[in-house]
Amino acid sequence: MSYIDRIKEKARADKKTIVLPETSDKRTLIAAAHILQEGIANIIMIGQEEKIMDGARWLEVNLEGVQIINPEKTDKLEEYVNILFETRKAKGMTEEKAREILLTDYLTFGVIMVKANDADGMVAGACHATADVLRPSLQILKTAPGVKLVSAFFILDVPDCIMGEQGTFLFADCGLNQDPTAEELAAIADTSAKSFKTLVDAKPIIAMLSHSTKGSAKHPLVDKVVEATRIAHEQYPHLMLDGELQTDAALVPSVAKSKAPDSELGGKANVLIFPNLDAGNIGYKLVQRLAKAEAYGPMLQGIAKPVNDLSRGCNWQDIVGGVALTAVQAQLV
Description:
Layout: H1 3-13, E1 17-20, H2 26-38, E2 42-46, H3 49-59, E3 67-69, H4 77-88, H5 95-104, H6 106-115, E4 121-124, H7 130-141, E5 151-157, E6 168-172, H8 182-200, E7 205-209, H9 220-235, E8 240-245, H10 247-251, H11 253-259, E9 271-273, H12 277-290, E10 294-301, E11 307-309, H13 316-330
Parallel strand pairs: 1-2, 1-4, 2-3, 4-11, 6-9, 7-8, 7-9
Antiparallel strand pairs: 5-6, 5-10
Helix pairs in contact: 1-13, 2-13, 4-5, 6-7, 8-9
């Protein structure tokens, strides 16, 4: 059974309700039909029912069982207006502005539904930038208790690979924080460990990546990773974590034995923490394209309730996977 099939099975065991607000996108409609058919989650779509169903008929997909909420017609509009107003009034929000936003911005409407416990999570980003998905999520849902930083990660499932957790890895941060500080890198390692445990159900073995292994190079970029490793050991002593490590020293036992013989990881890392967004984004896309890996994300971690982003280059299968992963995250909220 593939990684994503195991996630789908887990999602079906405790079915959650996920909002898909991008109902003008055909990939979303196709994905919703497959999610409903496979029983992965209950689906709420936002928009005008006639347009959504016309789109489904044109695509020849079956949306039987979907719940469609039209912001202009729902009897919950005033409740949602009040939630948005109360949440953002200190930032100048008025009831009139809240109503206008909810009637025109389906992403914010979806986040409010999650805030109101009318949905367990939301998946969007097929036709919106990450910032558009993240902004209302942070403003309305805010960070989870005890979390220092919201970050993004990908789950990579590499075929015919003996590394990681039977070919499954978590890469972070590959989608959000451009140049995290040493303390932020340590915090990303901690939340990534929790995400890996939740979504892969295995012990996280965390490598703080660099172009240097244990002092083989001298540079401020290396110093940042060294300091991040020190902070992580101090603040999160329960983590199995080491750095600074080059990728081969993190993943290949024979190389680890040569380059980092004292490392407790032994070349068996399954969670890779990248020093900046350039490295992370380049790294995951290389693995995805050259190793023909399945890449799920960017997933967001550290928000109080599950909201996840999609690449604008995603296909409908990516949306199905994102919903399954979001549903599993929601099981633990």
